[in-house]
UniProtKB/TrEMBL annotation:
A type II topoisomerase that negatively supercoils closed circular double-stranded (ds) DNA in an ATP-dependent manner to modulate DNA topology and maintain chromosomes in an underwound state. Negative supercoiling favors strand separation, and DNA replication, transcription, recombination and repair, all of which involve strand separation. Also able to catalyze the interconversion of other topological isomers of dsDNA rings, including catenanes and knotted rings. Type II topoisomerases break and join 2 DNA strands simultaneously in an ATP-dependent manner. Its cofactor is Mg(2+); Mn(2+); Ca(2+). One of its GO terms (biological process) is DNA topological change. Few gyrases are as efficient as E.coli at forming negative supercoils. Not all organisms have 2 type II topoisomerases; in organisms with a single type II topoisomerase this enzyme also has to decatenate newly replicated chromosomes. InterPro entries: DNA_gyrase_B_C, GyrB, HATPase_C_sf, HATPase_dom, Ribosomal_Su5_D2-typ_SF, Ribsml_uS5_D2-typ_fold_subgr, Topo_IIA, Topo_IIA-like_dom_sf. This is DNA gyrase subunit B. Mg(2+) 2 binds at residues 504, 506. Belongs to the type II topoisomerase GyrB family. GO terms for cellular component: chromosome; cytoplasm. The record marks 456, 459 as: Interaction with DNA. Mg(2+) 1 binds at residues 431, 504.
Amino acid sequence: MSQESEYGAGQIQVLEGLEAVRKRPAMYIGSTDSRGLHHLVYEVVDNSIDEALAGHCDEITVTIHDDGAVSVADDGRGIPVDTHEEYDRPALEVILTVLHAGGKFDNKSYQVSGGLHGVGVSVVNALSGRLETEVRRDGGVYRHAFEAGEPVGDMERVRDMEPDEATGTEIRFWPDDDIFETDEFSFSTLSNRLRELAFLNSGVRITLRDERADEDETAEETYEYDGGIREFVEYLNETRSAMHEEVIYFEDEDQNIQVEVAMQATEELQGSIHAFANNINTREGGTHLTGFKTALTRTVNDYANDNDLLDDLDENLKGEDIREGLTAVISVKHPDPQFEGQTKTKLGNSEVRGIVESAIHEGLGTYFEEHPDTAQAIVLKAVEAAKARKAAQKAEELTRRKSALDSTSLPGKLADCQTKDPDEAEIFIAEGDSAGGSAKQARNPEFQAVLPIKGKILNVEKHRLDRILENEQIRNMITAIGAGIGDEFDVENVRYKKIIMATDADVDGAHIRTLMLTFFYRHMRPLLEGGYVYATQPPLYRIRYRGETYDAMTDAERDEIVEQKCNGNPSQVQRFKGLGEMNPEQLWETTMNPDNRILKQITVEDAAAADKMFSVLMGDAVEPRKQFIKENAPEAEWIDI
């Protein structure tokens, strides 16, 4: 563990100057929409978490202020304020104004860090209209302010620290509204990420406060989990039926690489496995996830064979059989992680695989020997899954994965587009033949395809893949999208980069949309992670007055148009009950024309939160769903996954 004396200006290494961040923000934070806005908070919080990982921080407080700012305060050592020799400026100023300046490029200041690229807080500063810092260290309280990334005056020592005052850092920033498309911070979005960080760092207390609440009330939640990822698994399984009460947990360390694994088998059909490296959600997996899967399959098969539990199967279990219904969290902390890609979503360190494999094989093997009833239940559940898989392989109809993937002819109901460039192509998956027919007439055939689906597709949360592939509507979607399904899904083969759900603005339409989203999340998740999935938002009303036409999305918007545009006396108000009621011209103007339409992009910001949400909404447990609806129905027009 590093000593406090090793974290000063001398440990702040400068790799290059801050350039072009304000001109090309998406290069650094991914986007300038809501996702990028919240990424600013995560970058600052990651610095505090790194202090916690180094053993110097116990409490982190994130506050959404009512003036548009967000502040992050911690009780760590405080950002260094002594003079940086090369720049002859305080280290605090260098860290906030120079890209790749930080204490994370050697292993002296931080043994483990999530913010290894060192761009975080300087990028936040560059993309903020104003940023203010307060640092408590070296016996004093220091303040510095910045505007659009540039220092405002010099750093000031404003007072001496009180005798019992703790060291720490507070950063408050106002995102630049000339850069970001939105300035609205979401409490629930921040809550999901901060809860996840608290699970991954046991003993750290993280508080989220929202000062924007009505009637001068402040919303506040605190996350602290001494059980760490064990409690994470319990949280994910709150709406699932666990097959054993105790969460299986073990940890190991080798070559300064820490490995933690927690898992619990459930009676459900959908598995839920989440892998993290240095607190970063590695959505694309990597060597730690590969090591986990390999060792899990080998360990379960070894136990099953040693105890003669596979006699009815005549072959070993496959990984997919064993992972059915399994909830697991894998967390590794590496002093020098190598992430593949700009977004750091795949771990590449080759040595991690063997270390994780060894930890799983030893830890799980020992657990099975000590808990034979649990081990046998897990094996028998996997045997049942294997039998279903083998039955599907033998089916003569299109009820097996291979036939869905190998089908070369496109669905007969698909009206395909002319372009073969996925970047230009988009497909409307339309509810019902009537809406599909109108959409086919309304579309621009050069780049717009239309696939009508009839009725409600299968709820995939409750069925295995062989049963899912019996559903004609799902088979048509798989074939049209063209990238396969499940473990064999390859996003590189997607035929359309915009997959647009076109459903009615009523309860049935919302249900169909949820069923489709459940299917995409469980079996084509890269579509959601890549931002390829959208939903139409057609107007509910069309108002005509003196030759002018106005569209309204809500009752309130309709009333406003009638009052302000039509002087309270419109000549016609048309209520669209469904897409099928629109003629092709109306459908094009309101819903399909890229110049006029409103699309809602569906993304997955937090895989664990989305996983739990789909279990609540689409799983077998009734009470959690009733409770969710009761709590959220009054204000829910749309739920962001």
